[in-house]
Amino acid sequence: MGITDAEIYQFVQIESEANLLSITTAMDLGDFEADNSVSCRLTSAVPEVCMAEDCCLGIDEAGRGPVLGPMVYGICFCPVSKKEELRGLKVADSKTLTEAERETLFQNLSDAKDFVGWALQILSPNTISTCMLQRSKYNLNALSHDAAIGLVQYALDSGVQLKEVFVDTVGPAEKYEEKLSQRFPGLEVTVRPKADSLFPIVSAASICAKVARDHAVKGWNFTEDLGEVDTDYGSGYPGDPKTKAWLLKYLDPVFGYPQFVRFSWSTAKNLMDGKGFPVYWDDDEEDGEKAAVRQNNTSMLTYFNRSTGSTAHGAAHQSHRFFTERRLQGLNTL
């Protein structure tokens, strides 16, 4: 008796789920999922051959532009003598591949663990926003450069005999190449635009980074009490209508967004400015309450002066869930 279309479909579904399970096992995001407010490093085992032969290493990232989710920096390395074998795995720029193709290629890289290794730095949205919004500015390019440098140093510290490093540029390629060459004088560094389409080792790093980001976004653990979260947030890029709709839906007028959102992106800041409650943040340069009055605004300090159970306008006051969830109460006297 022949196999029906339904049976074939069920078999394909089971095979797909099995492949996804093996990929998830190869790239365990458990540490990051346990606390996605901080950055996390994931690594494969280092093949013995990589500690015995001259190796090449590629660097690329995934998720630089989205307003949602982490940015992931990835490296992939293999012996120089194995470049053709790596090319034989048919790796390509992750942006040109479907999700299913990326998953398959990552599995191929994992299966080639006798000569291929990788490492990832997952930069949480909270880390990105905190760095970019701190008083001493730390922009995205500097953050990206430091993530790449940290991963190269990890490979060296792990005993990988690095000889060549290929990098997809962030900022001017010549300046970035000079920076890396000065930091790692013993390495032959090549920085090029679109390096992920020029060098297979960079393509491999691109695939690892993109697969990790896809899994992190899909399995995002919302620590905030948002109820049943709508996960139909589109691509996460600022111009995506679905992403914009999601940002509007989950904007809290007082506390802004869950940590899934990069507060430092202009898309998020503009929505908070337009839809959130206006508040003047006190600093050392000017008396906060006077400045707030001058700007027809509200000083943060006034919230600490209000009597329990009423607002500045005398209306009944109900504590925000931020306070009730943490069992916080107003302090009237010291």
TrEMBL record:
Pfam families: RNase_HII. It catalyses: Endonucleolytic cleavage to 5'-phosphomonoester. Residues 54-277 form the RNase H type-2 domain. Its EC number is 3.1.26.4. A divalent metal cation binds at D60, E61, D168. Manganese or magnesium. Binds 1 divalent metal ion per monomer in the absence of substrate. May bind a second metal ion after substrate binding. The RNase H2 complex is a heterotrimer composed of the catalytic subunit RNASEH2A and the non-catalytic subunits RNASEH2B and RNASEH2C. Catalytic subunit of RNase HII, an endonuclease that specifically degrades the RNA of RNA:DNA hybrids. Participates in DNA replication, possibly by mediating the removal of lagging-strand Okazaki fragment RNA primers during DNA replication. Mediates the excision of single ribonucleotides from DNA:RNA duplexes. Endonuclease that specifically degrades the RNA of RNA-DNA hybrids. Belongs to the RNase HII family. Eukaryotic subfamily. This is Ribonuclease. It comes from Merluccius polli. The lineage of its organism: Eukaryota, Metazoa, Chordata, Craniata, Vertebrata.
